[in-house]
UniProtKB/TrEMBL annotation:
Organism domain of life: Bacteria
Listed Pfam families: HXXSHH
Native source species: Blastopirellula retiformator
Protein's name according to its UniProt entry: DUF1552 domain-containing protein
InterPro entries in alphabetical order: DUF1552 (IPR011447), TAT_signal (IPR006311)
Length: 466
């Protein structure tokens, strides 16, 4: 039978001897549709990266200020990167640096308590009752997640969920529950690219049957419960529905071969005790997941706040012992420099990831992958434990309308900072400047990503300058 090449699905396979091998995108297929090669892909991706413990913030009269302050000198398009961000100079035209943003509900809370709400903007508070809300990435995943094998890829160096106000994940579902993060490169690779065993379909069928029974029983039970218990049951049912959706999605993808990728250059059986190679493996896995269209949403929390967990070893990549100690030792000789050297290392690895996206042509579309990928990097604190003036980077997304090559400073002329010498910490001191709500930037990002919304968390508007 002769089949019109233009009618073939985007996912094509070589078949023979009982196996199916996924093909890369071939121009022969795209040019068969008139004008298809000239049309930009409507695919949009989002990745978010989180750095714990803030960044170097020496005061302007400190000798270290010129070289080791994290934020650039200057403003607009006329700015100079310090040594902290110098590895990003080749990507200057692809990146925007932002200052003067924070979440209003966190500004008077100790900086180590706020990773939980970096992507949610929720008022999780300094102590007591804890309730979070949906994170930015998961809201976008609700919009595009049904188009890929995995709705999102949630990663962190420490893995799991952590504790309330001590999150080890950036991602929270519609109910505000933490989504466990993966932290083992081999396991992430296997999930993305290694075929499930032959028994997977049977287990999926059993899961569906079990869920049907659960939902039927729950509907019958609900009529017998108090109002409070009904709320508890509804929360439980939400989890069941989310599982049901995952099972349905897994069934749809069960017989579609996984993409084939070359990872000979990666060390997958590795951990944070080899921090440079570990970070490179984690960044590369996100790149491969995007390149194969396995997902379009990814988060990676580089470390947990307060020096807890294996992530505190990352500074060993540049000759220091524990990462968190660098933030406390800025009062010592070369303290700012040492902290800055670590931040420059992180900038280098972030830049490597962004550059790889830029160097990769967009499959079945125009430009490169970075043009259709919005990448965000930041922290929920700037100076020592200070939950204001978040250090933020945006890269990519030019096909979504993002403008780069600029430093947008919405902060005070003299931001809080300096080494902590005892007494009241910066987060305990009232600010004479009010930051912009970070949620305003998030609304702008969501809109450019194609999500129809005018609000997120405590937003008051948008940020047109990006």
């Amino acid at each position: 039978m002769i089949q019109n090449i233009a009618s073939l699905d985007r996912r094509r396979f070589l078949r023979g001897a009982g196996i199916a091998l996924a093909l890369p995108w071939l121009e022969s297929f795209s040019t068969a549709v008139a004008g298809a090669a000239a049309q930009p892909s409507d695919r949009k991706r989002f990745a978010a990266f989180y750095l714990p413990d803030g960044v170097p913030m020496p005061l302007a009269d400190d000798p270290s200020y010129e070289d080791w302050a994290w934020f650039p000198h200057g403003a607009g398009k006329d700015f100079k990167l310090t040594k902290c961000l110098a590895p990003l100079e080749p990507l200057r035209g692809e990146t925007t640096i932002l200052s003067g943003f924070s979440h209003p509900s966190a500004r008077s809370v100790h900086g180590h308590s706020n990773a939980d709400q970096f992507l949610t903007g929720a008022n999780t508070g300094p102590s007591g009752e804890y309730k979070n809300t949906i994170s930015l990435d998961q809201l976008f995943a609700e919009h595009v997640g049904d188009q890929t094998r995995f709705s999102s890829l949630v990663m962190s160096t420490d893995g799991g969920t952590g504790t309330p106000r001590g999150a080890q994940t950036l991602s929270f579902n519609r109910s505000g529950r933490a989504i466990p993060a993966e932290n083992k490169p081999k396991r992430i690779f296997d999930m993305l690219f290694v075929k499930n065993d032959a028994d997977a379909a049977r287990r999926l069928a059993l899961s569906q049957s079990s869920l049907d029974d659960l939902l039927a029983d729950a509907k019958s039970l609900r009529r017998m419960l108090s109002e409070h218990d009904q709320e508890t049951l509804d929360e439980y049912l939400q989890s069941v529905r989310e599982t049901e959706l995952k099972v349905e999605k897994a069934k749809r993808w069960a017989n579609i071969p996984l993409p084939q990728v070359n990872v000979d250059h990666l060390q997958l059986d590795i951990g944070p005790d080899d921090p440079r190679n570990y970070l490179q493996a984690m960044f590369e896995l996100i790149y491969l997941a995007f390149k194969t269209d396995s997902t379009r949403v990814a988060t990676y929390q580089l470390g947990r706040e307060n020096g807890v967990g294996a992530s505190d070893y990352l500074a060993r990549a540049v000759g220091f012992n524990l990462t968190h100690q660098l933030t406390h030792n800025t009062k010592n000789p070369d303290g700012w420099k040492n902290f800055g050297i670590y931040c420059a290392f992180i900038s280098e690895e972030y830049g490597r990831f962004v550059q790889k996206l830029k160097s990769t042509p967009e499959p079945d579309g125009a430009g490169n992958m970075l043009d259709n990928t919005l990448v965000m990097f930041g922290s929920a604190s700037s100076a020592f434990h200070l939950s204001r003036n978040y250090p933020l980077l945006l890269s990519g997304g030019k096909n979504m309308g993002f403008k780069h090559g600029q430093y947008l400073n919405y902060g005070p002329q003299k931001p809080q900072g300096g080494a902590w010498l005892g007494g009241r910490e910066p987060w305990q001191i009232k600010s004479n400047h009010e930051d912009q709500p970070l949620a305003n930037l998030y609304v702008t990002m969501l809109q450019r990503l194609g999500v129809e919304t005018d609000a997120f968390a405590d937003s008051t508007g948008t940020v047109a300058e990006v």
